[in-house]
Amino acid sequence: MAFEILDALKKDQHILVEAGVGIGKSYAYLVPLLLYNHYTGKPAVIATSTIALQEQLLNDAAALQELLETQCKVTLAKGQTNYFCRRRADEYLARPDAEMADALRELIGKGCQDRADFPGDLPSGVWDRLCILRYGHSCWNCRHPCAYRRMREDIRFTDGIVICNQDFLTAHLQKLFRGQDGLINKTVEVVVIDEAHNLEGKVRSATTERISQSGLLKMIKEAQNDVMPTEQPYIQKDLDTAQRAVRAFFQCLQRQMQRQIADSAQDMKYAERFFFHADSEALPLLSGMAEALDSLSENIQVYSSYDLRRGGRYSGADDFYAKAEEFSDMVSDLGSSLLWIEKRGNSAELVYCPENTRDIISNLYFRGDVCTILTSATLTNAAQGSFPERYAYFISNTGFPLDENGFLSGPKPSPFPYDEHAMVYYCDDLPHPREDHGAFIQRGVERLIEILEISNGKALVLFTAKTDLEEVYTLLLRRNLPYKILVQQPGASQDQVLSEFRNDMNSVLLGTGAYWEGIDIRGKSLSNLVIFRLPFPVPDPIIEHKVSLAKDGLMDVRVPEMIIKLKQGIGRLIRSFSDKGIVSIIDPRLRDQPKERYHDAVWASIPIHNRTTSLAELRVFYHSLMDEAN
Which of 71, 288, 342, 381 has the least C-beta neighbours within 10 A? Predict the structure, then answer.
């Protein structure tokens, strides 16, 4: 892999390579990058989607530099919410109800600025009041030393390697594409995208806009404040019209969302994304709101204080004008945008992004002067066929070039002894999870309990839907099982529940979402991995848009999405050469007879080929593994 990356650098090619767990893929690109920097003096960027990997790469680079005898400056550029803001902290600590106030003052006095410098048990709500939320012009006038500002200044001129997240790199490339100054040294010609299976989602997120009723009404109010009291009567009619239009449109969104929740299958109960239907009610309200906002913004621009805006201060009028113009442009060309509804608390937001995410990725990452190296453990959607066929879904989503500018590397399989250390159990006697969901849950829980008895806990159970997780958790608690049942906690940080899972050898952890790819737990604590239902994507406007463009929505979109996520989930079990255990897939759709269309493709993609439908055989295999370990 390292040699292929070196060849790609020499030939100025982009390279795509799936690298299985345990081959040392970070070394495979760090060695070429460090040598590239050493001999050319040019900067480079590595972008990932998790902080854990970024911090690991910082340590790996330090170890390699000692071996390679290079002296490249490596800068870790985490997202702004990972850094402390003194101004916001002072505001919070001035409150009489501030939590941990004395401890925070002591840490601040010692110069702590990074989230990692603060206690791990600091409530997430407290950190949200301390961190940087909006880095901007006002930060340059701040009199307090700021680690984030120093980092931002450093990376604009560095001749070393910057490690950041994919969102930050995408924002940098977008600025360069628009002819603006970037966030990183603009002479960068080499970037590495690790965890590249997330790139499409990250770029779509970077080009996504959202509007809410409360946000729009607040923006209107701030813009109105720029108008002198004597001029207010001249904007009042447009102001009233715009406010009515905003409320009417978002009431329509709320009705659409509630109808979908009430009429939908089980999976939509806790969905975040819902479909926006441009029907005979919603479309006129959407157009009317755009026109009302546009008319009000122009009127406010006429009557707002010119002296205020000329003085360089923040202007609500200018901000509102820009937002209204952008929104009006989107509504006038609805065909080029993808719209959906998102639930925020009890409210509905309108979210939209360009339809052509593939073209945006191609323009940012595969054109111009940058050589892009993409890698992940889960990039292929098939285990057989030509390389373009095996990488077909990723290529379709990102526009990776298949001409002389792009090189597809053969997937590098994990060196771990999967078939000696692991076995997959699958069942063919359960109800269909969608056609008879209630019966599937009931009998699936009974099967899960039998599987847990084999290992006496020590299990991570992964779900595709939060509804399934909650139902199974409730049913397991009623059974008074002889091991603690833990469940994924709301919020971003999962450190506490993961620590409890590691320390309580026989516990069982139920999770969804990020647990499919963000967990690295080695040893016996996780020696039983259970997939509770195949991870087909739940109904989602983005997935349905892809399906609408595909010749075969099932095999070209839904199955590749499922296979990639299934591989990520199964990858939680074997994390080292010494790890051993079992995988169970509680879903009848992988039965051997009658076969589903995707049967062979799924089984060929799973790295563990040792499989059984017999719980007795699974039990014998598991206990033989544990006897060997002892």
Answer: 71
